[in-house]
Amino acid sequence: MSERTSLGTAKLSDFADVNPENLGAATRPDFAFRYVDLSSVSGGRIQHGPTSACSFGSAPSRARRRLRPGDVLFGTVRPAQRSHALFDGDGTTVASTGFAVLRARPGDGVSSFLRHFVLSDDAARQAHRSEVGSGYPAVNEVDVSALALPQFGVEEQRRIAEVLDTVDEAIRAVERIVTMLGSVRHGLLLALMRPEASWRRGTLGDRLLRIESGKSPPTTDRRPAAGEWGVLKVSSVAGGGFRPEEAKAIVPAQRRPQDVVRLGDLLMTRANTAQFVGLACRVDRLPGPLQLSDKTLRLVPRPDVVPQFLLHALQTPWCRRVVQALGTGTSAGMKNISQAEIRSISLAFPDRAEQQRTVEVLDGADARIHAEEAGVRSLHDLRAGLADDLLTGRVRTVPG
Q: What is the per-residue DSSP string for 219-287?
């Protein structure tokens, strides 16, 4: 690669035809196709749902954009969500008018390059400046056609796409490893946490010294700044671990030192949706002072209980089913579980030495997953920098 030399500026319409093929009123009602709407596109990919097959007569009125392999979809409604993707499927497919369809013009544009451009931060910034509307901000075909980019030749477009495609494939490869390791870890959890005859059964209450609850004071409705106190939201307790960024700032008068969260604390939500009520996690990082809310509980285990083993026990599928069944509430969205119900949960525990051995195995699996996830984040950072350099012409893949 070489440093940038002078490049002229072009418009997206110089590389591609925009909305080149649309179904008209004369289309036969029995004309069958797969339909792609805005909800079908995320992360740069098209996900066909089970109801995507339809005919023109029964399809939504927005089903009008005929697709051909190599077309690039640009989501024009809420473009900040980047509902953009390359269509590389086969069969007859039609997209919603919520998309602008870009068809690379032979000799001028390369489909894979156009995909990378529309997903770029630069394209997002330009689209944001053209948005109209507050509830459903949108851009139109003219706005998309006018998106500016360097006047790359076809060969340089291909090389840029090849570089970014290579990084994307590396990211997908590591993501597949993370998925595989997650499956292995789940299998270990099921095998190691299934009670044996020698384990002593009792209730969760038998294993706890106490359960501590916080308060929910008035908040500033924003995240805490550096050094500022905050109160946890229920979303801070997640299946994948503790999320300290899920907190709201509080004023000094609302600070409660007795409710301050500490490293190593075992937390549980007492109110959440039916899927997430009673989730538990362990506090492994604290960027600033945070305190419990009235919907987050601190479980304080007895000395003969390894806290991380208790967390693993609460995360088993059979324990989650019990907890979800205990959740009550008339709201279709939110469920509650009382401290008495939490204490009543039946659990079996081995001796402390076996608890510790089990924790070491599962924590080792978690450490490997976290290392691979860190690798994914690093690759995403690398890709973001590369995309910005290459797609703006700051760094060239061919001599200028």
A: --SSPPPTT--EEE-GGGEETTEE-TTSEEE--GGG--GGGB--TT-EEEESEEETTTTT-EEE----S
Q: How far apart are CA 205 and CA 133, in angstroms?
A: 54
Contacts for 142 with CB less than 8 Å, ≥ 6 apart: none
Nearest in space to 388 (alpha carbons), one of 200, 45, 150, 58: 150
Look at residues 205, 229, 206 and name the one whose alpha carbon lies nearest to residue 219. 229
Q: What is the pTM of this model?
A: 0.79
Tell me which of 3.40.50.1970, 3.90.220.20, 2.40.110.10, 3.40.50.200 is the CATH number of domain 200-348: 3.90.220.20
108 vs 115: CA distance, rounded Å: 15
Q: Is the CATH code 1.10.287.1120 the one for domain 154-199+350-400? A: yes
Write out the two tokens for 130.
């053209």
* Mean pLDDT of all residues belonging to the chain: 92
The phi, psi pair for 348, rounded to 5°, reads -115, 140
Q: What is the pLDDT of residues 305-337, one digit of tens each?
A: 999 999 999 999 999 999 989 988 766 678 899
The answer as to CATH 3.90.220.20 being correct for domain 2-151 is yes
